[in-house]
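Q: What structure does this chain adopt?
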Amino acid sequence: MPRPIEALVHVDALAHNLARARAAAPDARLWAVVKANAYGHGIARAYEGLRGADGFALLDLAEAERIRELGWRGPVLLLEGCFEPRDLELCSRLDLWHVVHCAEQIDWLAAHKTERPQRVFLKMNSGMNRLGFVPGAFRAAYARLAALPQVDEISLMTHFSDADGARGIAHQLAAFEATAADLPGERSLANSAAILRHGLRTEVRNDWVRAGILAYGSAPDFPAHDIRHWGLEPAMTLRSRLIATQQLQPGDTVGYGSTYRAEQAMRIGIVACGYADGYPRHAGTDTPVLVDGVRTGTVGRVSMDMLAVDLTPVPDAGIGSEVTLWGRGPGGSLLAIDDVALAAGTIGYELMCAVAPRVPMRVAD
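A:
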């Protein structure tokens, strides 16, 4: 039989989470962000759950081609724009909208020969200092684009660096509005954290909002708030089974480096999951897992193909018992990916994107 580990994608959860985004930012149109192969879920697997969005936002042309192949005829936005001049040819052929964040991309547009003007999103660097024109250069960039016959409609966008935290978005909103308030064009400002925390503010939700991590059932401002607070559902379950058990005596150690030593007699289970499956090696003892739907924790160091769990809370567990590494467990149990990420010193984004190709992944029944 195949190794018992698998990942499930919950299409109903994706649709539910998009509905939560719409409720948080009423009247705005919604991008479903499917970069990084739909945050590790697979664009083709996630598509049915996300097709209720008004458009798809992504990074590269291969992802854009996949969305078109799946039958999507609505807006598709390249969030980092074109990487070289010839990318504009595919933008024309696939009818892609694309971000313009640097002078070179305007130069490429000016030299592009096309009979079909393109829709662009001019990006402001309002404080993230990653991509975009600083406020002092933004209006000149807008004027250059507006003068090009290759450009049809110009929309305006920025990206918040602190929408999930105490600093908030006021400083970036002020920078954006001071420069762009009188410029025509639709706006796209809000990412997942801004949608949930600030989406009811008219100046934030604007015309388009971008649902990224929230669509996949991870709270963008965890641990301040969890998915229950925001009414989100996990879109991925990673599960396996126990393949062995061991009875420990006081003083026995577990795993490489003997990082865990039993203080009393206890029983542990060995799970068919390890860092080669994408489970974080740096996850230490007591990282939460579910065994037969009961919450317990890991024991010792994660190996390439296996990890150990404490069976004290589940004395009846044995070989074949279901282990939920994150997501939906048996009997309605739930382990949020954010809980696992916090214990492992990372974020839910990384875990869902890091599931290894060797792990079978399918849409849940």
